[in-house]
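Project standup — Tuesday

K.O.: blocked on the structure for the chain from last sprint. Re-posting the sequence here as requested.
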Amino acid sequence: MTMHHPKNDPSDWSRYFADEIEFGHSYGLLDRLGMALKVIYSLEAKKKVGQLLDEFPADVAHAHCLYHHLSPSVLVELKQRGVPTVMTAHDLKLACPAYKMLNRSGVCEKCRSGNLVHLVKNRCVRDSLAVSTLIAVESGVHKSLGLYRNNLDRVVVPSRFYLRKLIEWGWPENQLVYIPNYVVAKQYRVNTTPGNYFLFFGRLALEKGVETLLRAAAKSGVKLRVAGTGPEDATLRALAQDLGANVEFLGFVSGEPLWELVRGARAVVLPSEWYENAPMSVLESYASGKPVIGARIGGIPEMVLEDETGFQFESGNVEALADVLASVAGMTGERLAAMGARARAYVETTFTSDRYFSDTTALYASLGVKNAAGVRT
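H.V.: unblocked you, prediction finished:
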């Protein structure tokens, strides 16, 4: 089940979709009030998932990013019908109301005590007082009623870091299951020969640490290519010009042109400055035969094996990143090619679809799902 959206593909199941909720659109006051109530608890979504279950009885439910688009009301319906329910934590919403444990001043965990005034005071959601206030109310209601805690049988976490962080914020360890992400490595062409540029690909937002990367690239004198767009695009372009950095901004790139960029790089850089979960970009780079230079924050360090599949540096530290960039720029092609080959082997043996399927079906079986390997999806 999902919500209606103009970009949805046609679906025979769309009659079960909930109405779109998107506060960025121009809605009237009554529509906005109605959406605000749905964010907290959507009776419409609960009714729709009930109708879906009437036609398609589920062996198990596995939720992804339902939050304010559907609300935890759908979990209540599933619980009432006795359907074992799992949700993958792609972000930290189950702990932090603002998803990222991040505000304008950087990483923030002030709401861990349960006092959500910090969320409103710092305008943690979209830098908006109104939206932050709504999300504070939403989170307060959800937590006081235990709408996630009491209606989810298990939460899947793709990184050990998120496992530890959710435990720190009060989630019981026995309700959490670590299942890492995967890539189908054979779908990626490999080129372990190192190129003459470093590559960042992703969203150009403050938490991605691209400003730190630009300053480090300028300091180390390396060539950098940046693929992506986002709210910091213009600011970062101006900064690169001011620094005199050897940076090429490529805008939005996807599909085969993006993978050509990855294969042609010397290394891919993830300079993140927030609690990343388990970035797919690391696995995709490895599958392409490229080492990764990753910030030591969130789940990145557990994926980047120092001097084996890449290198780590202190998040937000320009000097430390510049040193790594300069070091990698000066390494022999043979050493980097061998590192790229190890990176490819790492995803082929560790982050596989077979492992993901095995771990996931074992989880379903532990919840009493019969013939879990044959669960309908």
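K.O.: great, moving the ticket to review. The mean pLDDT is 93. The radius of gyration is 22 Å.
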